[in-house]
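Q: Hi! First time doing this. I have a protein sequence and I read that you can turn it into a structure. Is that right? Here it is:
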Amino acid sequence: MVNIGNDWDEILAPLFESELYASIRGFLKQEYSTKIIYPPMHDIFNAFKYTPYNEVKAVILGQDPYHNEGQAHGLCFSVKEGVQIPPSLVNIYKEMQTDLGIVQPNSGCLTKWAKQGVMLLNTTLTVREGAANSHSKCGWQQFTDEVIKILAQRETPMVFLLWGSNARSKKQFIKNGNHLVLESVHPSPLSAYGGFFGCKHFSKTNEFLIKNKLSPINWDLNE
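A: Yes, that's right. Below is the predicted 3D structure, encoded as structure tokens:
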């Protein structure tokens, strides 16, 4: 059984006991035993471990984990300490600097955001080495659909940052008017100039949180 170690355990229990997750688990057992899969098995649910359900202030939705060695650790767009910052995250930092004046960090590890209530969730939680989207049809999409529905039902306001088409497809599940939905193209070099740069999602998130009497996110990773 999955043990997250916070309030997600009880909330996700029906999902982890479902036929859907049994199918995903069977697929992953085969994949991890025969191929190189990222992230490491114990990191798959880090987005939940680092950000308890009742502490979520914002959700950043990515696509699927980085598929090169040593990068993915279960938080979307984040890489482990000491790993070169990937192009999409470089662009996220550029927009953050333009929006908030924050000097671009030297580290690509985003755990500081996650610990402040920014849930860094991919729409697909695992990937085969060197093959983007290779696990997108194993059931993860339906799994994260359910997670977004659960989050959207919460009354406490939060911000959903949907970057890219995979993430934006989840908008249909966010029907609670208490929440703010911010949409953009993906921050990858292929699309960032099509609307990600200039979106001001970092300042808009904090303005919404403050307006709803919630503490803002300190996006500065240099401190």
